[in-house]
UniProtKB/TrEMBL annotation:
One of its GO terms (biological process) is DNA-templated transcription initiation. NCBIfam families: Sig70_famx3, sigma70-ECF. Residues 21-88 form the RNA polymerase sigma-70 region domain. SUPFAM superfamilies: Sigma2 domain of RNA polymerase sigma factors, Sigma3 and sigma4 domains of RNA polymerase sigma factors. This is RNA polymerase sigma-70 factor, ECF subfamily. It comes from Clostridium gasigenes.
Length: 172
């Protein structure tokens, strides 16, 4: 849990406080970026750009308790832009991809799940990634994506249904 006092100091311009906050959430930023772009170097670039943009605009953060969702939203926006910019096919050895997400090569179900997530529409994919890769609550996802709570629940449900259908087709 982020210390709201530390966030308030960062908002007032304390660079050390900002760096402490960034160090606490940098892994989550990386996981989010990697889930979108599936490239280690690009994900690291996104982390760096996220930190820079957050540092520049930290004074605009109105609610210190939302620092985490605020910085993740910045990371998502940068990740989406980078993904659209690099719409080319990313060639990756199957073993390398599986190692990045912690899947053994023998575990085909998880591989199918990752493939299935990639087939989802962006609005469903975003919510699935935030819910299951970043462990955000429905309320936090609604704040990050700036959507009504009901819409997040609907998209999550539709995304999960689509994943189940995809998995059933692939297994049969």
């Amino acid at each position: 849990m982020l210390d709201e006092l530390m966030v308030r100091k960062a908002i007032k311009g304390d660079e050390d406080s900002f760096m402490v906050l960034v160090n606490q959430c940098k892994e989550q930023i990386y996981r989010t970026a990697y889930a979108y772009v599936k490239d280690e170097n690009l994900a690291l670039d996104i982390v760096q750009e996220t930190v820079c943009k957050a540092f520049i605009s930290i004074s605009k953060l109105k609610e210190p308790k939302y620092f985490n969702t605020w910085i993740i939203k910045i990371a998502i926006n940068i990740s989406i832009s980078a993904y659209k910019k690099n719409q080319k096919v990313i060639c990756m050895e199957q073993g390398e991809l599986l190692n990045k997400v912690g899947v053994d090569e023998d575990n085909n179900e998880k591989l199918y799940l990752l493939q299935a997530i990639d087939t989802l529409p962006d609005k469903h994919k975003d919510i699935i990634i935030l819910k299951y890769f970043d462990d955000l609550t429905i309320q936090e996802i609604a704040r990050v994506l700036d959507m009504p709570l009901g819409t997040v629940k609907t998209y999550l449900n539709k995304g999960l249904i689509a994943l189940r259908i995809y998995m059933k087709k692939e297994v049969v």
